## 1
Amino acid sequence: MNAALQRSTFSLLLVTAIAFVSDNANAQSRLPNVELAQAEVGMFLDSKGRQVFYDVRTDEILRIVETPQQRNNGVRISPPPAAPANRVTAPKIVKRSPLPAPQIRSITPQVDEPLIEPDVVAPPESTQTALLPRPETPAQTKLQNVALLQVLLDRMGISPGVIDGQAGSNVRKAVLSANTKTGRDLSLLTEDQLRGELLASGGPAFESYIIQPDDVSGPFVAAIPVDYAQKARLPAMSYTSVAEMLAERFHMDENYLRQLNPGVNFSQIGTEIRVANPGIVSTDTVVRIEADKSAEQVRAYDELGNLVAAYPSTIGSAATPSPSGIVTIERIAINPNYTYNPKINFTQGKNKSVLTIPPGPNGPVGSVWMALSKPTYGIHGTPAPARIGKTNSHGCIRLTNWDAKELAGMVSKGVSVEFLE
């Protein structure tokens, strides 16, 4: 039997099978809509002009659809004759079992408000990012050089903030500090020279990374609310996504990470992505810190007066200025709770009561708190690393979480912090 004849014969058998599923024109009601969604569906018209839907994988009749006119005329199908012995019988209709319920990771219920740092006063600079480009045009080459320069600065302990391929104010101040530390203007290096320096200091600026089971295990929260009372009701100020967590791990802007990996499902174990290859954590000993308000930068020095590290920072605001003069570090807390007391520092929204906000990288002080001898002031992390140096704070010194962690590992109680106007 050729293929055309076989198909024609099988179509006839499918039509005859219709009579067994119903003695009237409403047989379609026997199979719920969800079964059509679960099947790979084919369709043909029977001799009465009705649409017959079937599963093309199993040849199973799923639904018969008739026109309103056919229903009104009371169309019926006569029982089919017995199939000849030399033909294949039409498949039986078997009701499908429902699909198992999806496995849902336990997370905190979603909160309507987006992730917004609540104490932003001044509008941020543009932090729009771009793909790490191929060197096809001068403009693209410039963007690529910035990304390479950012990674090189990060490895030197001169933080550019988030790695995003943009030559903003944080990169410019980092270049100046690198000049102080090394006596060289790194902005003058060509792309080949930058690549050579990178290879000598830890390898290429960007590398491949395979997403691991631990990366997707969480816990995550659906969103971080703005209101402090709502924050206090959450179990933790966790990351909101795998991409956010990986961006922070590799010192990157989250948007830049996504643009380097278009279409990637960051929650899929085994997925290969492209990430920055930042420097290792410094283990130098810091004995003195400068918090430069005008430059919005924190600089750390060793006992010989050498510049050890420099970090872009957000230091106070006109409404809530930072302290003046010299204070000291009193204690260091990693992954701290945050106590909100409107009677002591500031009022957030309509919250008039003392609140304890749980720890986590998206908490008001990020994942690190270094308390200063000036009460209620400290050096701490942030839930919004791309805004460092581009917004205002409530008087404290705010760094990216990774820069705050590095600095916390180099200081101890009694280290001086001098505020420069």
Note: The chain has a mean pLDDT of 76.
## 2
Amino acid sequence: MMLSSEALYERLAELPIERRRAIAEAGRQLAEREGLDSPEIPFAFHHLPIALDRERVSAALRSCGAVVQGLIRLERRALGADGGEIRDRLLASLDPPGRRLFELCNFESDYSVERRFRRVDAMIEPGGAGGRVLEVNQAAPAFIHFHDALQRIASEQLGMIGFDHEPDLLAPRVAAWLVGEYRHRYGTGAAPETIAVVSEEGYLYKRLELPAFTAACERAARDRLGCDTAFRLCFPHELSLRDGRVWLGDRRIDMIWRNSALLDSYAGREQEIEDYRRILARHDEHLIVNSTRVWLTLTKDALSLLSSGPVLVQLGFTPDERSQLLDAVPRTVSLAREPDVADEILRSREEWISKPAAGSFSQGFEAGWWHTDASWLALVRERSSREFVFQRFVRRSPGDLCEIDSAGELHRRTVTYEFSPHHVDGAFPGTVLVRARVDGAKGGRIVPVIVV
């Protein structure tokens, strides 16, 4: 039987309730084995995966890829000899910690910029028209072990009801990316002996998922690449500089995968991360991937540039490239740069949202339909500075989800979801996660996707 959402529901409906109860219990046990049983994690292991049509996913990934390439072009232009105006604009939209992080970095190879780890947050357009990209997280994307764990759970549960699903996991791709970066940098066929995966203290999702993901990368390097590379998870204050080399205790570090961002949380402890700051500032001497240089195009004002036809012409994008980007990026505006758009935003407030250019975790998010005309006017005036953007609202994609409760009863849930593929080593893997809202419930849930 061909796998689809409808076929999945029909197969589950045919099963005795005891069998469905066993599938739900297997999901619970698998989630516990994968470390997903923490109440801090927004998962529901009794949800079967969402099945998405391959053509729709391919169209959406083409849109996501166009935006990733657009950001790469924008970054290179901003840091080139004639990019001062764009660079100054992007820097001005960052908050002070973001500017400080950008200013730490003095080098990153084109090879690394193309391949650095990213997560794209988008919506799939109805009818297979493509995707609409809301933002690209290039700093330290979360949900990487969660992606692989949920794909493995989905594969096992689907196998229990007669469907074959071979997941495309992120850990092997990350291992190949990191080994490839090392070989490209040093012109060698050898592999790094030790890679430091540097996270910061206090980041919930990193604390929950990086230990397992780091171990998975080490296994993948050994089993798939034949590389005896050690992956060591650590914090910034644990790294030191001795004799011009990076050390973690008594182990010499050959390269760093930077997953740290919130260095301001170390305020008052600067001496403890002084060496780490020196390491980050010397990318020409130390191999660091996902450098702090990413902050330049992490700002959402970068999307203001990529959704403006005149700016795309100025930046040298071809007509086809401009068409792709204008279709993929909802109109995003910095009123400090385009004050004339304020009248349109005020007239059609239900079609616009606003957020800090340098924000994350939905902090500072405002939707026009939450407001009266008077309060929206006040917000627009307040957010006419360079630190905020306004963006045309894009509705979440609709779908449905099969759910088995603890008694084995089968339910079909209406969901809306955000499409969040990871971009690894210059490409998208074949599987993604979605962040879904079920039946209008508050809060989102992370759900695996299978492409059919």
Note: The longest strand covers residues 410-420.
## 3
Amino acid sequence: MKLLSRYFINGLIVVVPVAITWLVIVQVFLVAENVIGRHLPVRFPGLGLAVFVCLIVATGWMSSYWLPKKLLGFVERLLGSIPVVKFIYATVKKLSTAMLESPHLFKRAVLVPYPHKGCKALGFVMAELSAPLSEKTGEDMACVFIPMSLNMTAGFNIIVPKTDIIHLDISSESALEYIISAGMVMPEGNAAPNDQGRDAVSIPHYTV
């Protein structure tokens, strides 16, 4: 029984990641097919997903030219004039821009004292503090996001002095694995060479 149990656990270790990856891919495929594929005159598997990707690329291409850029600006101003919609749109746009354009998002893993001085929590250095915040703190501080284990969509955003931040020489992937697995997968020291050997934390200069 011990031998069978060990084989069963080894089988789960192999099958579960493959199954979850496959389910995610299938769900993305099905959503694209149901939203776009069913409205196309010609239908075959994968066409909806291909058209969806092409639409995104075409939108990005057109947004770089003068006339489409003016039209997009008009749509943004229109959305910005609607009381509730403008708050939702502005928030989502700033968040998506920061996530997609920032080369530093979830790239700088650090340890910070949380929830009190005697403990340490693994987090990620985020955006540079804005002027209204930095003026009131009175010292050199940084914004750090501490994700919740097993749920990366939630967490705590704290502002701590840079002197309390301990930079970790680990890759962002390894840090995320540690958080997602609730500490079962320990981070490994394989950070990029340009992230190693720094005593001070360098903060990216962008504002959300």
Note: The CA atoms of residues 178 and 186 lie 5 Å apart.
